[in-house]
Amino acid sequence: MEVSRGSCRFGLWNIHVWWSGDMIHRVRFAKTGIGGTVPAPFLRYCAGNPVDFRSFTSIAFEEDTLFARIYRAVQDVKYGTTATYSGIAAEIGTSPRVIGRAMAYNPTPLVIPCHRIVAVGGIGGFTPSVEIKESLLAMERTGLQKEQRTANETGGSLH
After folding, report:
1. How far is the first Cα of the chain from the last one, in angstroms, to the nearest whole number?
2. So which residues are the catalytic ones?
3. Residue 8: enclosing H or E segment and its boundaries?
């Protein structure tokens, strides 16, 4: 199976994506772009639109490990919301430090939205820059508010 790659712009950063079909192999943030295209949901997301990445699978789910169980729980944290390291830890039956370690090793950010996992008393960390985490969360709050305004104006419902 051939793996495609490409990047899209998010603010001052580029999001590099390696994928084949609905399997995402790797997502990374970098200062420079790479040639190629990315799946359309990544482009919509980077444009500030609400996207549910659960239609993709991650290479991180391939084995039944503690980290894979953590990643599945994190994938369920909805766009525009957050959960805490301690909340995910209680759900999985481990410690917040283990959740933090799993987030640091996450091979497919956005598909596994580790940026939505925050500390009880603050934002927590993010590699390569906590400013990316802050920007992603701010963009999602704005996207969710925009979607809610549109639903209210049209009398529709969200999803």
Report:
1. 33
2. 114
3. strand 4-10
**Consecutive H or E run containing 32:** none
Among candidate residues 77, 122, 125, the one with its CA nearest the CA of residue 101 = 125
The amino acid at residue 78 is K
d(CA 114, CA 117): 5
- pLDDT tens, residue by residue, 34-51: 999 999 999 999 999 999
Q: Which two tokens stand for residue 146?
A: 């925009």
Residue-wise pLDDT for 8-24, tens only, equals: 999 999 999 999 999 99
Q: Are strands 23-30 and 57-58 parallel, antiparallel or unpaired?
A: parallel
Domains in the chain: boundaries: 4-154
Phi/psi of residue 94, nearest 5 degrees: -140, -165
Instruction: Take residue 113 and report the two structure tokens written for it.
Output: 């939205």
Are residues 62 and 157 in contact, defined by beta-carbon separation less than 8 angstroms?
no
CATH code of the region 4-154: 1.10.10.10
